[in-house]
Amino acid sequence: MELLPIIAAPGVGERADAAADAACHLYDAVVPWSGDEPGGWSRTAAEDAAETIETTAHALAHIHPRAEVILAPVHAALADLRRQLALAPADLLGAEGLPVVARTVGNPRRTRWVRVLTPPSPRRPPPGTAS
User: Fold this and answer.
1) How many other β-carbons are positioned within 10 Å of the β-carbon of residue 50?
2) 99 and 93 in contact (C-beta within 8 Å)?
3) Which of 6, 18, 27, 32 is the most buried if burial means most Cβ atoms within 10 Å?
4) Alpha carbon of 70 to those of 13, 55, 58, 78: distances in Å?
């Protein structure tokens, strides 16, 4: 197996590091809410997290000739999770690995839909803690 280079392409290392940090912060935010309830997740937050994993898996598919096949179970598991949570399915990809429906801007998050800003709901303390 060929080893990866020490230095990544411009911006790749920084973005991968930021994604890893963001995943750690997300985990830290969810854990206090875990238990018998959905763990503090909202529909939008769950869809955003699933899309993040899907997009990262698509990016990793270019790391090795067999990576796409190796990562296929990730996409299958996320599709099943989306079904279980009654979320919209992931965007379909064409043979070139690009979305079937062309995006109008480079950032996929800006093309999904327009979210209406609403005031945040008051946070509940995690179960088992006194206020």
Assistant:
1) 19
2) yes
3) 32
4) 22, 15, 11, 15
Task: Name the DSSP class of 63.
Answer: S
pLDDT mean over 7-20? 94
User: Distance between CA 120 and CA 72 in Å, rounded?
Assistant: 36
Distance from C-alpha of 121 to C-alpha of 116, rounded to nearest angstrom? 14
Is-contact 54 90, C-beta < 8 A? Answer: yes
Q: Mean per-residue pLDDT for 64-84?
A: 93
- What pLDDT digit, counting tens, does each position of 95-121 carry? 555 554 444 444 455 445 444 455 555
Side chain identity at 23, as an amino acid letter? A
pLDDT for 97: 53
Beta bridge partners of 99: 93
Mean pLDDT score of the chain = 78
The single-letter DSSP state of residue 6 is S
